[in-house]
Design a protein that fits this description.
Blueprint lengths: L1 H26 L7 E7 L4 H16 L4 E7 L4 H14 L3 E5 L1 H8 L6 E4 L5 H4 L4 E4 L5 H11 L5 E6 L1 H18 L2 E6 L6 H8 L5 E3 L12 H11 L3 E3 L2 H6 L3 E5 L1 H16 L15 E6 H6 L6 H5 L3 E3 L1
Parallel strand pairs: 1-2, 1-3, 3-4, 4-5, 6-7, 6-8, 8-9, 9-10, 11-12
Antiparallel strand pairs: 10-11
Length: 317
């Protein structure tokens, strides 16, 4: 009898364990499907597509299951706003914003975290609590280090700027120049009309003219005056983009757009794991490319080290 009771107790215990296990398994939530990510772009242009491809490829490499809803709204910001509202309403996990317009629309809502890139003004990313990403601008220190690398014998770096737009950047440039052993000669420009006098004030004071993004100083209207000053005085001009190099600037730093997308994918992975945007710091582009104008170098008797010539993304000669 005692043996039979022990067997019953054992069987009962096993049954209860199996029943509890079944209840526990039944209580587990269903495995979530792929995360839906709205990719919002202002332009359907090559840099945007390259950044998107880098983003998509890196998510796949990280093993992130995601469905990308790609929307380029062009000049129709109403369409872009509608897409953002739909994303917030349907429970999208993330918005990947490409460009300033897309970033502005995405950051206006607070439900869905945003990773942004192809934005020149870093404040557009840093100014919103639900946004992180990779702005286009390189750190001032990196800009000045590249001046030293490509023009090692040039110590006096001139720059024209408008205080309202770039006062903080120039203050940081002064600090970084001192650390690097460079002399920064900064000339303030209040309006575009002040540009000719500001340029002439630098003629005998600088060895290179460094361009910073500034709508007062650098624009299609001022480009001719700046490049003419550069050639007449044999003062190399560091342009903002490859278009400036093609027009006569000595060089410009360029972005690897696919790598910007890959960099953003790494940040997106953290957000999808539950981190808030405020806990994922804004990052500078991690890869620097550059374009060179060999004709400009020859005319100004500038010798770029050959290894740097070979490694240029684009050479105009």
């Amino acid at each position: 009898m005692g043996e039979d009771m022990r067997r019953c107790r054992t069987i009962s215990a096993v049954c209860i364990a199996v029943l509890l296990a079944g209840l526990i398994v039944g209580a587990q939530p269903a495995v979530a499907g792929p995360a839906t990510i709205l990719v919002l772009g202002g332009k359907d242009a090559p840099p945007y597509r390259e950044a998107l491809q880098g983003f998509r490829d890196t998510l796949a490499q990280q093993g992130v299951a995601a469905t990308l809803d790609v929307q380029f709204f062009g000049d129709d910001e109403k369409q872009g706003r509608t897409r953002v509202e739909a994303a917030a309403g349907r429970g999208d996990r993330l918005i990947f914003a490409l460009g300033s317009a897309a970033t502005r629309l995405a950051s206006a809502q607070a439900k869905v975290p945003v990773v942004a890139t192809l934005v020149l003004d870093a404040a557009a990313i840093r100014g919103a609590a639900n946004v992180t990403g990779v702005p286009l601008g390189f750190p001032v220190e990196a800009e000045l280090q590249w001046v030293q690398r490509l023009l090692p014998d040039r110590q006096r770096v001139g720059v024209l700027y408008n205080t309202a737009q770039n006062g903080e950047i120039i203050a940081e440039a002064r600090r970084q120049a001192r650390k690097l052993g460079l002399e920064l000669v900064a000339q303030e420009v209040h309006t575009a009309k002040d540009l000719p006098d500001a340029l002439e004030s630098l003629a005998n004071k600088v060895d290179v003219l460094w361009g910073v993004a500034d709508s007062v100083v650098l624009s299609p209207e001022t480009a001719k005056a700046i490049l003419l000053f550069s050639f007449r005085n044999r003062i190399p001009f560091v342009g903002l983009s490859e278009a400036w190099v093609k027009a006569g600037a000595l060089y410009s730093l360029e972005r690897d757009y696919a790598d910007l997308g890959a960099q953003c994918a790494g940040m997106a992975g953290q957000l999808l794991q539950g981190k808030g945007a405020a806990a994922v710091p804004v990052e500078a582009p991690r890869r620097v490319l550059y374009s060179l104008n060999q004709k400009t170098a020859e005319r100004m008797k500038v010798e770029i080290p050959q290894p740097l010539v070979r490694d240029a993304k684009k050479i105009y000669d």
